[in-house]
Amino acid sequence: MSEEIELMKGNEAIAQAAIRCGCDGYFGYPITPQSEILETLMAEQPWKTTGMVVMQVESEIAAINMVYGGAGCGKKVMTSSSSPGISLKQEGISYIAGAELPCLVVNVMRGGPGLGTIQPSQSDYFQAVKGGGHGDYNMIVLAPASVQEMADFTVLGFDLAFNYLNPVMILADGVIGQMMEKIVLPPFSPRKTAEEIKKLYPWATYGKSKDRKPNVISSLEIDSVEMEQRNLKFQRKFQLMEENEIRYEEFETTDAEYILVAFGSTARICQKSVEIAREQGIKLGLIRPITLWPFPTPILYQYTSKVKHFFSIEMNAGQMVEDIRLAVNGKAKVDFYGRLGGIVPSPIEVVEFVKSKIA
Amino acid sequence: MSQTNSSINEIIKPENLVYKKPSVLNDNPMHYCPGCSHGVVHKLLAEIIGEMDIQEDVIGIAPVGCAVFAYKYLDIDFQQAAHGRAPALATAIKRLMPEKYVFTYQGDGDLAAIGTSETIHACNRGENIVIIYINNGIYGMTGGQMAPTTIEGMKSSTCPFGRDISLNGYPLNITDLLVRLEGTRYVTRQSVHTSAAVRKTKKAIQKAFVYSMEGKGTSIVEIVSTCNSGWKMTPEGANDWMVENMFPVYSIGDLKDI
Amino acid sequence: MKTEEIFIAGFGGQGVLSMGKILAYSGLMEGKDVSWMPSYGPEQRGGTANVTVILSDNRISSPILNSYDTAIILNQQSLTKFEKSVNPGGILIYDSYGITTPPTRKDILVYRIDAMDKSIEINATKAFNMIILGGYLKIRPIVSLESVLLGLKKSLPERHHHLIPMNEAAIKVGMDIIYQV
User: Fold this and answer.
1) What residue ranges define each of the domains in chain A, with the CATH number in brackets?
2) pTM
3) Does A11 contact chain C (CB < 8 Å)?
4) Shortest Cα distance from C62 to chain A (angstroms)?
């Protein structure tokens, strides 16, 4: 079997990967710069092939609550939006975490606050990794840096969501969503049958069979003693994620004296910055956190034994830099450079900033 | 004593059975106040699910409000929704499993205030679900605040001098609005304050469940109800007050059946 | 070729994005790594549109750049804004239609292609962007004409495949009419 190489936008890749990985339902509302996800799904009409349900609904709020309903039935369901729409979904995401349901939420970020700009930004980092909704919960946040990863993380995101029974977020931005690149789509895998769901997800609400008690999907627990126990169980789950799910990529770090830390499209820009800096004799490297939560804290800490100066490069006012500072725990200097409001930093700009700080 | 016991045993025989608690209703003590309409409607749902023999094929959606714990009393699979979002959950569940019966159970705050958008859009899409809508004109769970359906002049903790139209706007008759939507098939308004009314409501809910499998649109059963604690009345007084004051605003009967 | 970084800018509706797309598809046909990064949003609807296309034999790092090997400029606004973005020794191709202030840089190679006038003359305004593409490929033959035709086939929906010969003809016209200033 030869690989199917395609050229497509990051947003389209998410839609195609969802159909191929046996997604049962997508619920969404148009918003730039991610509308191609819904548009692609509507054009593909997967309900005629795999049986996947695709709905454009009245609001982002309705969409995330449809995800809750579908996930509660053991179905593989997702939604996508961009920053303001993701703010609207936060209550629903918190409910999903509280009811321990699996789902995939895609945020193709634009500049904020408020209606902001449709241009790319990474200013929803805090919202994604610190728990955008209410209550003590975390979710795995995957930051793709290529169109290929938009597809790959759709598949991976669902797997992680079902492994931990927890929402998973893909945190992309307008660059990754809108650009076209080469991609090898994941192979087709069928949707789960009703029988498989009964066997695999005995907690799901598919109708109470005679041999069991009713299944109830709820995040409500009035009794504080019970609720504390439930919270402690969540925390154990989040700890497992921190132990097992950290993902990151290194670039030219072996002999690096300085390290850039950047995620998503900014990491692509920083890769170019590393190339330029090395041509000028500066030993610069790059660490790209792939999971923004759990953050590659131990990896960064290990590097402090040989690297004394880190640079956080972000398209925001300085958010991930706080996690880097926590990670290096005072053992290295951390400087921040960011562009705001939809401005994308250029590779040379980043190099000039590094040079100004190491001079 | 033994005389009495033996006479009871004489009476408790299958052939003498005239009424029993529906098997779908479990033994958990309900948290509803004495005199509340919720218990009656829960029992009707349990009866219907039992009689239609659909316990294995029904999924209920509980709201936020007094009925948040509906899942504790009916032995069926249940999901508890965020405030107002029950029709969104129901939409997804029915679309993903069209062979199942899916119903929401919502109060007036849930359905006609915070969830207005979800209600109207689910109905407008003609989702093949059943919406059970309890309208008692007040927020019971949070302690008797004004609801979208609180009638003019009616007192609540957030309109202590009675609902003032110039301040609070008009009571929202959402069911009348839903009649106008192409997506609705069956819209009815009932009550459960007399035995006759209970029987009519049961028939209406039954019909809504049957309709929901015919793919012809949404069925809404509004039940004009009492909240005697929130209204600060006796159960009987609340029934009388409802007939006298609520029914003129929320007229009882079928509004649409096609 | 190791890496070619191309910037195309003009009015929305001139086929800027689709020309970039065809170029990217052509690179794909030759097994190159490619990226296509458009300006997006309201620009799509009548304002200026631009796209950065990168073709490379290696893995592409940044899909967004601030200077380019080649800039193809199709209106005055973009010329004013982006003339300075061409790498020294790089190429600037422009269509003279509506240009009031032609490029002045001496450290780059400037080419002119009167594609708009030509497309009107030969009654092929819809293939305007293909005339431009032809001109570019004449100067920088980074992909073969065969690959471009394969790329067209891959990027166009099947119902438009009958237009490929017309596009091919337009590409050849572009190759003929481009000249160095």
Assistant:
1) 5-194 (3.40.50.970), 248-358 (3.40.50.920)
2) 0.94
3) no
4) 4
CATH number at residue B65: 3.40.50.970
CATH superfamily to which C3-180 belongs: Pyruvate-ferredoxin oxidoreductase, PFOR, domain III (3.40.920.10)
Residue B16 is assigned to a structural domain of this protein = no
CB A144 within 8 A of CB A170: yes
> In the 3-class helix/strand/coil scheme, how is A97-123 assigned residue by residue?
HHCCCCEEEEEEEEECCCCCEEEECCC
Closest CB from B80, B90, B92 relative to A217: B80
Contact yes or no for A181 and C40 at CB 8 A = no
Do B and A touch, 3+ Cβ pairs within 8 Å? The answer is yes
Average pLDDT for consecutive 10-residue bins of chain A (359 residues)? 80 98 98 96 97 98 98 98 97 98 98 91 97 95 98 98 98 96 96 97 96 96 96 98 98 97 97 96 98 98 97 98 98 97 92 96
Q: How would you classify the pairing of strands A140-142 and A103-111?
A: unpaired
Q: Which chains touch C (3 or more CB pairs under 8 A)?
A: A
The number of folded domains in chain B is 1
- Whether A215 and chain B come into contact, CB under 8 Å, resolves to yes
